[in-house]
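Quick question, first post here. What does this chain look like in 3D?
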Amino acid sequence: KLTESMQRDLTAVRSLADTATAKSEANHGELEALKQSVLGKTEALEKTTQTLEATVGTFTEQLEKMQAAFKRPGGGSATPEAVAKRHQDALQFKTSALALKGKLDIDTDISAQVDIDEFDSYCKSFGLSLRRNKEMLDHEVHKALSVGSDPDGGFLVTPAMSARIIQIIRETSPIRQFATIETIGSDKLELPRDLEDVGDGWVGEQEARTETSTPQVGIANIPVHEQYAEPRATQKFLEDASVNAEAWLAGKVGDRFARREATAFVSGNGVNKPRGLLSYPTAATADATRAWGTFEHIVSGAATGITADALVRLPLMLKEGYATGGRWLMNRLTVLAIMLLKDGEGRYLWQPSFTQGVQQQLLGYPVSMATDMPILAADSLSIGFGDIARTYTVVDRLGITTLRDPFTAKPFVKFYSRRRVGGDVVHFEAFKFIKTAAT
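> Answer (accepted):
Ran it through. Tokens below.
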């Protein structure tokens, strides 16, 4: 019985061993297949990882190039002119912001403080500040605007808008375009004025030397004045309109400021506004005998008309150093009158270019049309000629600032915009006029 029992147990053990062996072989096959599958997937994963790393590396390199490009003035594939213009805009913005906060002085290194990213953030946030109340702006917008805001909540208009305004100025009277422009941090510009010459003389070897005259240096002051405009729009318009509120404000303020400023540079009397070229007296006397503060004029030779003789004489009345940078300044209708001048045989004396975009030249000097110059009439200073950069200086105290006011004229939102600018004549020998006869 014991033998039979052992045989049965041995048979059962063999059966179990055979079953285990079969299962082991089956499991081994499954494990081998799984191993091969894992190895294949691992290999594929390694290849995918390598491809992904290469792709990420390429993308990162391109991203770094893009970031570097965006951080450069002008950005991307901008032309050198655009790069320089963007950097200049950022420099003007920083100058105005420092002046607005009372931190601009003669020792300030403005170029070291220019931050292109900061300037870009401000430009993006400025338009949003025009559409919404200050309380509705998030922290990031407040942070971006803080670099150009004063304690009263006014915001600097971006230099790009100021550029559009200057373009409008060129279309009226282009004094700013050709004048010397100074940006200051106080209420006036002081310029040293050296008008006198030093005394001298001839002397023998052993003769006594007497003291000669010493020239005196004076000071010319150009104060700054304030311009303002206050256009308005409804809050609903600002919220729902598809137009750009910034562009709308630029158009309204730009047109008003441009016409006011251009007129003042030509004919302003200096009372709460710049003093213009035409506000000073003129005399038909030479530079050496004429008092400082008086322009020289030559008579046209005909009442309410211009003669060819006067046109030829005027450039030669200036000293050579001034005439080198000379240009004509006159109204469009005066230009027309000159174009219609004829010789004794009916031929036009002036043959201007009729090609679009070509600078007109009269007697070899460029012609600038200024709407604010007087038209031809008896006893008028209708034509000016000279070096405007030497003659006239424009003083910018601040760029344009805008204060959003949604309270005082509900449901309208008023945009109180202001700027401070001055201008005056600083040289009376570098510019002269043709004056038509009184009768």
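Residues 191 and 220 are 5 Å apart (CA to CA).
The two ends are 160 Å apart (CA to CA).
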